Fold each of these.
Amino acid sequence: MNRIRSIETWRALLDKSDEQPFLLFKLSMTCFASISAKKELQKLQTELPIYVVIVQMNRNVSNAIESDLGVKHETPQLLILKDKRGIWQATHYHIKESIVKDAIETYVY
């Protein structure tokens, strides 16, 4: 997992998403659901890059994501990005390895 720390990095990744879809994981360091979701993602076998935004440390990036995609902010939140838009999302305890794997197969490939 690679961390996004700036709005510029976020927007560059978004621009490249038509060439390279990716997973975007927003989490809170103090939220049990975020920790559980992170463990699920660590089990995931995928060729898609996974990028992380730690909301407490980069709230401006989280706000830009919400604004750019028109997707209401939640934590934890996992999005699949492709073609410069969010094509799928899950929050809280719906972030499970098997669910994410199925979503990737359905929406990306």
Amino acid sequence: MAVIPKILVFAGSVRTGAYSGRTADVAQKELAVQGAEVTRVSLADYPLPILDEDLEMERGV
């Protein structure tokens, strides 16, 4: 019986167009093609004290 790996993917940045987000997109797709069960989460969905450059541009520091 084959074990299907379960993988959580998230980017270290929530900024629009961030390299880590684009890398996470590619990783998610490739892992799914390889047969993994992939879950993608965004750190922006959690109440964390994170740097958000998009929000700073919109509302200020």
